[in-house]
What does this fold into?
Amino acid sequence: MNHDILKVSNPNIKENPTLKSVYTKRAFPYPLHIGFTTSIPVEIIYAAGHKPIDLNNVFILNDSQRLVREAELSGFPRNLCSWIKGMYSVISKAPTAPAGFRFDSWEGLDIIIGVVQGDCSNTQSLMDILKDEGKKIIPFSYPYDRNKDVIENEIAKLEATFSVSREQTMTMKRRLDVIRKKLILLDEMTWKTNQITSFENHIWLVTSSDFNGDYNKYSNELNIFIEEASNRKPFKNNIRLGFVGVPPILEDFYSFVEQCGARVVFNEVQKQFSMFYLEDDIVNQYHKFTYPYSIFNRIDDIRHAIKERHIHGILCYTQSFCHRQLDILSFKKHLEIPILLIEGDIPGKIDERTKLRIESFLEMICYEKEENLINV
It folds into this structure.
């Protein structure tokens, strides 16, 4: 195959220096593998014909403990978020990767989109390190004040980077919204018909940030799963919980909660990643996205879920050394429902102390339910 012809004929290359320099180094220049640090407008990446890859999912769904250790051996401090260290190792170790990585053919990452505002406070420094190592970096920001003009500008810049028109973006959005409608059904099967487990809800929603790099395959697998789950008998759990905060780094978190007789019927941030809004405009969609903006937008969303889903208690998860640990102060002030703060550090199983705290929390909720002290 003449790859020079591919490079010339691909309309998404044009004269963009960021893309052009990457293409000339690739043996197979199309599509590019685009890694990102938290949810971005993946519609643009797919519309450009490339493969979006959520670095968090690659990290946590593989040998995550090893990836953290490798970052620490590279000089990353112990008292730093494990997600940052894991993503660094995923990026720095490309194009090689161990067997069992989430993608059948791991060819490394060509470009990293770092969300430098609206997510982790360490991302900007991580991007600086990666840029110094020769990685291609594209910054993306969500404005704290949720200004629509700024969001429009950020989306337009990303479209320009990949030579994608707004019409192409919207065409892809409509395709992805078909999948999102199925995810809405899956979510309703979690809290309405009680046929989906806590972990199943979590994993399907969290992986919709990139649709596992192949939205057609993801959609087909989702169809099969929903068909299978629709034939289940409803689960009988006495305690209905909400999970707020970043997705947990603890691998047995959801299974342990269900072993204790409870079930998570609301995964706050994972649901936000799934973009259930189905807006007609791409800017409106990422304007409604609550995660990167003020916590008060998130509180409104959580309040609605508590009432709609008849939630008895909230498990608020936070990562060690994360600025979002302060969120618990606002949650306790504005949410009139029992809340337990869970902190995770390195990937692995729940420690015995945390198990005891969860068990005690659930026992308290059982007592308050029996005494009619919980009004939902």
Q: What stands out?
A: The first helix runs from residue 3 to 9.
